[in-house]
């Protein structure tokens, strides 16, 4: 059945792929995007057969126009990445928290009763899941600057100090955001959940793991690690890999992420709650850096520089089983080094 769907951030990296799939499936799509990342006008990949509301998600009038008559809202618009430093706190809160609050306020005002799909993130977990051979599941404390400088990258057991092994993390795991971006993503989840409870609206929070692929943003600290590495290679520079490169992540292709969004918007029984969106195949950050270099055919090699950033975590790898069970979603795209470099 065809629906009218609002996609905020629909000109962006993930949002534009969601728009493509929705239109191909026969849905009527309206995009709300400030185009701040595209000052020259809409990017070439934004389809001509969608309605574009070129405005900021912090503007209630923009939401009133874009949300008119929609059956579902796919909220992708956000400031992403770890940013520069704590001086970014107002920008993140303004774009992510305020932008979401304004949208929900307008949806309340207009009596919206459709579905909401929120682009959340694995960063809400903080460190991933760890197991100690003596104490089972444990939650390690935050790493310190001294730890990073000394090369103590893997957190020890908080009870006995012994090494830990990571395990896959599920959606019911404790949440512990460890940087500004992570805190705003969790607040977005809380705001949407509060709206959903009050209005009997299903809210699916898709916790993306590390997304890569075509249309990644370029030359900005407000991006994921794949984009940062790709931008370095395009400048003819070796990608700088913090710590020892052994940080474990799940890198998922943007087309798979888009398919998860469309499934959440259209599956017969709406899913109310969080879902991991991941490939199910863990890789290290150094693996990704090598893949980006190889895909660019540049002859460059990654440079492992040690140190690290306090807002980063060591290992976080998803369990994709709930999304498979409730959405029928399973990542299909292979990890292509060439794709990571585009």
List the SSEs and their pairings.
Blueprint: E1 4-8, H1 13-24, E2 28-33, E3 51-54, H2 60-66, E4 72-75, H3 89-110, E5 115-121, E6 129-132, E7 136-138, H4 145-149, E8 165-167, H5 180-199, E9 203-208, E10 210-212, H6 225-234, E11 240-242, E12 248-253, H7 254-266, E13 273-277, E14 282-284, H8 285-296, E15 303-306, H9 321-327, H10 337-340
Parallel strand pairs: 1-2, 1-4, 2-3, 4-5, 5-9, 9-13, 10-12, 11-15
Antiparallel strand pairs: 6-7, 6-8, 12-14
Helix pairs in contact: 1-7, 3-5, 6-8
Task: Give a written overview of the molecule.
This protein is α/β, with parallel strands linked by helices and 342 residues long. It is built from ten helices and 15 strands. α1 (13-24) links the parallel β1 and β2 (28-33). 46% of the residues are buried.
């Amino acid at each position: 059945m065809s629906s009218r769907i609002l996609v905020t951030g629909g000109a962006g990296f993930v949002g534009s792929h969601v728009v493509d799939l929705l239109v191909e499936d026969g849905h009527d799509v309206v995009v709300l995007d400030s185009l701040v990342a595209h000052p020259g006008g809409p990017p070439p990949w934004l389809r001509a057969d969608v309605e574009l509301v070129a405005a900021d998600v912090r503007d209630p009038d923009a939401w009133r126009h874009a949300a008119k008559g929609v059956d579902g809202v796919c909220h992708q618009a956000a400031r992403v990445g770890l940013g520069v430093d704590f001086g970014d706190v107002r920008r993140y809160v303004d774009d992510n928290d305020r932008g979401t609050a304004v949208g929900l306020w307008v949806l309340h005002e207009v009596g919206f009763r459709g579905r909401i799909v929120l682009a959340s993130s694995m960063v809400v977990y903080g460190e991933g899941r760890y197991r100690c051979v003596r104490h089972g599941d444990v939650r390690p404390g935050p790493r310190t600057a001294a730890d990073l400088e000394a090369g103590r990258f893997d957190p020890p057991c908080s009870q006995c100090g012994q090494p830990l092994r990571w395990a896959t993390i599920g959606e019911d795991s404790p949440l512990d955001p460890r940087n500004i971006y992570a805190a705003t993503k969790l607040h977005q989840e809380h705001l949407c959940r509060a709206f959903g409870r009050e209005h009997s609206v299903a809210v699916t929070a898709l916790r993306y793991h590390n997304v890569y692929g075509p249309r990644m943003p370029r030359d900005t600290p407000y991006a994921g690690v794949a984009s940062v590495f790709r931008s370095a290679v395009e400048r003819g520079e070796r990608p700088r890999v913090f710590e020892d490169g052994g940080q474990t992540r799940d890198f998922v292709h943007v087309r798979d992420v888009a398919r998860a969004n469309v499934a959440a918007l259209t599956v017969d029984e709406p899913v109310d709650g969080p879902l991991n969106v991941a490939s199910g195949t863990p890789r290290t950050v150094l693996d990704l850096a090598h893949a980006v270099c190889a895909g660019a055919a540049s002859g460059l090699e990654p440079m492992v520089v040690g140190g690290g950033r306090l807002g980063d975590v060591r290992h976080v790898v998803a369990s994709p089983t709930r999304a498979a069970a409730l959405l029928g979603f399973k990542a299909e795209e292979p990890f292509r080094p060439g794709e990571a470099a585009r």
